[in-house]
Amino acid sequence: MAPLGARACGRYRAGMSAARKTPTMADVARLAGVSPMTVSRAFKADASVSAATRAAIHHAADELGYVFDSTASNLRSQRTDFVAVTVPSINNANFAETVRGLSDGLKARGLQILLGATEYNVEEEERLIGQLLRRRPEAIVVTGGRHTPRGRRLLRNAAIPVIETWDLPSQPIGHVVGFSNADAARDLVDHFIARGMTRIAFVGGDAQGDDRGADRRAGFVAAMGARGLDATRLIPAGEAPVSMREGARAMARLLDAMPDCEAAICVSDLVAFGALSECQRRGVAVPQRLSLAGFGDYEIAAVCAPSLTTVNPFPREIGARAAALILDVLDGTRREPATIVIAPKLLARASSR
Amino acid sequence: MAPLGARACGRYRAGMSAARKTPTMADVARLAGVSPMTVSRAFKADASVSAATRAAIHHAADELGYVFDSTASNLRSQRTDFVAVTVPSINNANFAETVRGLSDGLKARGLQILLGATEYNVEEEERLIGQLLRRRPEAIVVTGGRHTPRGRRLLRNAAIPVIETWDLPSQPIGHVVGFSNADAARDLVDHFIARGMTRIAFVGGDAQGDDRGADRRAGFVAAMGARGLDATRLIPAGEAPVSMREGARAMARLLDAMPDCEAAICVSDLVAFGALSECQRRGVAVPQRLSLAGFGDYEIAAVCAPSLTTVNPFPREIGARAAALILDVLDGTRREPATIVIAPKLLARASSR
DNA sequence: ATGAAAGCGCTAACAG
DNA sequence: CTGTTAGCGCTTTCAT
User: Fold this and answer.
1) What is the dotted CATH code of the domain comprising B4-69?
2) Of A26, B3, B160, B334, which residue is most buried, by most CB within 10 angstroms?
3) B181-312 carries CATH number 3.20.20.300
4) Which residue among B103, B245, B305 places its CB closest to the CB of A277?
5) In this model, does residue B33 exceed pLDDT 70?
6) Per-residue pLDDT averaged across A283-300, rounded?
7) How sure is the predictor about A353, in pLDDT bands with cuts at 50, 70 and 90?
8) B positions 56-95 inside 8 Å of A (CB)
9) Overall pTM surpassing 0.85 (yes/no)
10) How far is Cα A105 from Cα A317, in angstroms, rounded to an integer?
């Protein structure tokens, strides 16, 4: 079946009769009449090879259809140029923006992201961290500061930079690029209070595994308590990922159970939009009868009518700052753990009067 | 600074005074009193090692904080357990769902996704494919059937399964899991015609690099022509990624330029929602004065009021089918290139009367 | 600027 | 079930 080269046994060879071995640097070297070492140098941008030799080598490589083999390079050089990243969900515009910020910041130095989704589950995160660390990434970026004991241990022992994001963990493992979700919720509370509202509800933040959401809800409760207001108007929205549908259902419950509410702070803009749509279905005027706010500054918050008051946590910048931090640490520019605090921005829009 | 072990020179060691070498299988073997080969087997689920030996080895490994090194395994075994995937954008719920479908289908066999975003640019796709193939993935999944010549060549020569998705390329490189974007647009045209509308516009599909969108627009033009209707009501929406904001602006132009339109088919639900919001701002009743349709069955299409008529292309299933295909090919169950055609489903909702 | 030798850490292949 | 030997394809190191 595969007469030559045991390596190709059972391997996929589209439309090829014989399984010819994939060419290696040695093959390129032979064809170009140089040593393998020179070929290796010719494939590194900053290595010293004469222009003519380099051109000849690339020509030979093209002729053979040679593709550089990172797996061998990784082992020998003990560098993978991977940065491992875990996010709760890939299907979330906020986290996707953080990944973009990371990716853009890292690709200039040839670092590639190895992405995993925890699906809002710390056990899954632990499994994922284990899998990712086997690949020997140069650094690892995780979302949030809550991990299983083994997850924490894996991260601490990894001997690579660890960056926790989207949060300000009380016991950081290494570096942090985040913000206070509780403070953001407090700012929204104060926003409504400043506009004369006191009967304020919080929608969501109950989802198991969504620690950022839980922190926002806790921040709401703390802020309401500190202002001497009723902090018990908490509307659960169900399991993560909590989104528009859940927002609509939660608003239905809120309107039924607490018709006197003047404002509702939702755990995210997606929930807020779902809540808004339910208000519109029921003829509840926003913001005249009920003010609404979300979180995240998702695109929909700016586009929907009325536009949604929200908080922009600068997800792209979180990624960009994390990337810059990684580069500094790998360069040796920075040695001590850093905590970079992002200042989220409250955006007052039409959904709050 | 790093007295022992040249490997650790300049490497990051959080809070460690000396740079001790990362333990290897040989270290674990020594501590457990077995050969490295037995340690290797103990780390493979299906290898034959006595239960007692396996337990002892894992105990020793834990004690040393040993982490299996995939880079060495990858080189020696010529397997990476990577599947490379390129999508136009990571920040798009449809593509994110396809990635989830892939990821879920592959993780059972221990395959991990290596993800890259092309940002709707074939040159970027070419670069990305080159980068990804160096990592020696077991298979590669790309979005769409348009590639640069070098991109095509790289894929064809890769000697791994290639799967093009979200499209039905006329010249497939290998396998295909997709659907006809043109047919989907035609179905929407027929949906409106069946409801008595003839002055129908298409919004978007002009974005450079969004081939699926272009196919939908082309399908609209072809279908309108085939039905003897005016196919010139084409509203550009700007460069990819085209989203809600662009939809709102495009609708503003449509209402100004073609106030007699009865229906508008938008290149995506995001554009359709933006268009809807503009209608609401202007007091244009949807669907009474103008019917709307989108594409993609994004969550917002079901939640917004009025809900949006759309087409569900089953993005999750595209990923799941691609994953199943990859497993079959790697198993040797399938040898010939497959073309799996997904049947998108038209969902008639409140935005079209 | 180029080359020779050695070896990264694991596992295929082949014993026993 | 366990061990021995060799080597995956590159790059570090040290020459010249």
Assistant:
1) 1.10.260.40
2) B160
3) no
4) B305
5) yes
6) 97
7) confident
8) 65, 67-72, 74-75, 78, 80, 90-91, 93
9) yes
10) 10
